[in-house]
Amino acid sequence: MVAGVDISFVKDTTLAVASVVVLSYPQLKVLHTEMQHVEMTIPYIPGYLAFREVPLVAPLIDKIKKDHPQFTPQLLLVDGNGVHHPRGCGFATHLGQMVDIPAIGCAKSMLVVDGIGRDEVGASLHALTSTIPTTKVMPLVGTSGALWGFAALTGNSISKPIYV
What we know:
- The structure is a single chain.
- Helices cover 26% and strands 29% of the residues.
- It is of the alpha/beta class.
- The strands form two sheets. Strands 3-2-1-4-5 form a five-stranded mixed β-sheet, covered by helices on one side. Strands 6-7-8 form a three-stranded antiparallel β-sheet, covered by helices on one side.
- A hairpin with a 5-residue loop joins strand 6 (137-141) and strand 7 (147-152).
- Helix 1 runs parallel beside helix 2.
- It starts with a strand and ends with a strand.
């Protein structure tokens, strides 16, 4: 089983909904959902998302483990960065450590890490898809030579990758 983890915000308010949706794999059938209305009291600070959001979603995962152990996921897919983070520990990595479940970050925005920036990745991905149209994934290799993750184009997008 896998679980998707996200917090959705009510525009122009401090209100949000924290959600964990457990799916079968590979069928991706919804097996269990935990949600909670929350108030965001900590401001967003780039690079410190985990300190704002982990305290809101970790209790939902703990509730699944306690009240519905048969739906405890084996993997978390988190809307946020994982090891692709200036300190190597973004929201996904932090959450995975706190709840003792492996986690993969799937971020919509890119943090500058090891010489990898959004402009360079965008230009490289555009060049790659122009020469090889079926290419949808590009490795994110830093100036150190370390592999930090991948930029992936999903659906029909040619300009808005997610960063895994």
